[in-house]
Amino acid sequence: MDSQVGNEIKSIMTRLEEDAPGVTEGLGALIGAGVGGAGALAALSSLGVAGLSAAGITSGLATAGALIGGGMAAGIGVLAAPVALLGIFGYAAAKKKKQARMISALNVAIEKLYAIQTRLNQNAQRYREEIGALTALIEGLKTKKRKI
Length: 148
What we know:
Layout: H1 3-18, H2 23-46, H3 54-66, H4 72-147
C-alpha cells in the first residue's frame, strides 16, 4: 500500500475511533438551550408588568400560562419549552453535522482502498499473463532439450 494513502487511511480511522462522543453534540445543545433561555427570559420580562421584579416575574408567568389556559405554573412550562426544544434542536444539528463528516471521511478511505485494490488486480492479471508466457517458454525449452 502506498505509504501516503496508508497514512491517510490510518489518520481517518484514528479520528473516527478517538472522536470524543458527545462533546460536539453537548456544545450544540448548550448553545441551543442558551438561545432558548435568552428568549424565555426576554419573554418573561416583557410579558405582564415590565421588568424582572417579583411583580414582573409573577405577572409574566401568569400571562405566559394564560396562553395555554393555565396560571403561573403553566407559564413556567411555556417559558421552559423554548429552552428544551432549542437544546434538542442544537444537539440534533450538531450530531447530524458530525455524522456527515464521519461518513465523508469513510467514503474517502473506501475510495482510496478501492483504487489500490483495482491497481493490485490489474498488476496480478499482468503477472499471470507473464507467468503463463514464461511457463510456455520453459515447457518449449524442455521439449527442445529432450530432442537434443
